[in-house]
Write a structure and sequence with these properties.
By secondary structure, this protein is α+β, with helices and mostly antiparallel strands. It has one domain: Cyclic Phosphodiesterase, Chain: A (Alpha-Beta Complex), CATH 3.90.1140.10. Helices cover 30% and strands 24% of the residues. The strands form three sheets. The protein has a four-stranded antiparallel β-sheet. Strands 7-6-5-8 form a four-stranded antiparallel β-sheet. Strand 9 and strand 10 form a beta hairpin. Helix 7 runs antiparallel to helix 8. The relative contact order is 0.24.
Amino acid sequence: MMAYRSARKIYQPGDGIVFDAGYRLAHLPLVNAAHPAVISEAEDRDYRNGVYEKTRYALVMPISADAFLASDKAQALELAMKSAGFAPKISWEMGERRRERLHATLAGVPESDLDRCVAEVQALLDQLGPISVRLKEPFQGTRNTGRIYFPVYPQNILGEDPFALVQKAVGAVPTKLYLVGYYHLRSELDPIETRELVELLDQWRERIVVTTTIPFLELYATNDDLALSARVHARMSVGGR
């Protein structure tokens, strides 16, 4: 049902991790502003040093950092990441800064459509009831190659992916791809470091890291793609909570 397999980055022997343009523009300026690969601004975008002038709104599935702290598997994975040879190239500071804003983005929402979005999503959530999710093995995709995510697998409700229903309710195309950005690379990885990361990811393939129930969805207002500036514009409770 999900789209993670086709979106997963596949490395060949001898490959290193090279930051793509999206990461260099939107994320790297916030993770490591001094890195030579930073793209400070783009002619056709309102980004400047990782921050955009006009506030964006996004419907998100927030997840509490406590869910990771309560998971033995998440703690074991964290220890493995911190023990790896590439660990110094991960921005552990960014992980701490984002602890209160962990989320998976479900859809962007135009500013002119915020009230309708909130009403439509709340009405749907009232019908669906509680939504349980599983976050599986760390995932690196073909986009934003400096980020390592946790893929979200929502429970099947009457044969449907509930987040796809939420996306349809706000007029978005279902993505079948819900990713919680968790680790951020400060520097690119050489082939040896990349092989070590790939081997670690393979060891965790298909393992469930966190299982939890989502109490609400939120509408974020933010001026950066790491949600460091995010404000909660609205909150929609799940299952009548």
